[in-house]
């Protein structure tokens, strides 16, 4: 596995394994998070690529991209994804009127991936609308972070992650994970902003600015759509990320506090205790290895 270094926080990882069996069934070929700025040469033609037999899922975090599929053009804004197979009649690119395009993507290979992509396209079309809070997008972020943390190191683990993503895409296509309300583009963009920048010292003004709404209207709309305040949502994300790190790493509580956006470990422990019912240290010590992999918080 190799990583192509970009701007800090953005990487593309390539997976190269010699066991042909898993590549024929389902495996990850590419995985990344990237940001294209105006003037960047970013233009992919589905019939002119060498990576034949691959299946791309790409989700917009912020900004705007464009995709043309069989003669029909679609703008890709925050909260929208596309699925395509290569080769096929499509072209995705950074349009001239875009002020930038930030996205996360995964490319799979294998016959089972082909079946999954074709089923999802038949059920939902090639352009999908998903909340950043949806299980499919949360899983994609988790796979990306696991890769960045060098937890996916062999063909078996990579193939397992490919299947996990495919099963979640099947669930989405079958509408098993029903969303009570489609989020507006500004609120979806804000959720993506929080999901990707929770480790920064975010203020309410920062979060409101990401939406493009006035602060007053943003607070009202966010509460109505997400059923909690922006700061409560930010705290939820930070605590969930901290819990994952407590369970999966040997980092100290102080290190984890810093990694999830808290400069003061005492304050982090206070927030964690309020959300989970125990301190971060006690949570780690009380873990039953056979029971807990991730903490779920509502």
TrEMBL record:
Gene Ontology MF term list: DNA-binding transcription factor activity; sequence-specific DNA binding
Gene3D superfamilies: Homeodomain-like, Regulatory protein AraC
Segments forming domain HTH araC/xylS-type: 188-286
UniProt entry keywords in alphabetical sequence: DNA-binding, Transcription, Transcription regulation
Organism the protein comes from: Terribacillus saccharophilus
Coiled coil: none
InterPro entries according to UniProt: AraC-bd, Homeodomain-like_sf, HTH-like, HTH_AraC, HTH_AraC-typ_CS, Tscrpt_reg_AraC-type_HTH
Entry keyword annotation includes DNA-binding: yes
Presence of keyword Cytoplasm: no
A Pfam family that the UniProt record links to this protein: HTH_18
Highest rank taxon of the organism: Bacteria
Name listed for the protein in its UniProt record: Transcriptional regulator
PANTHER family associated with the record: ARAC-FAMILY TRANSCRIPTIONAL REGULATOR, HTH-TYPE TRANSCRIPTIONAL ACTIVATOR RHAS
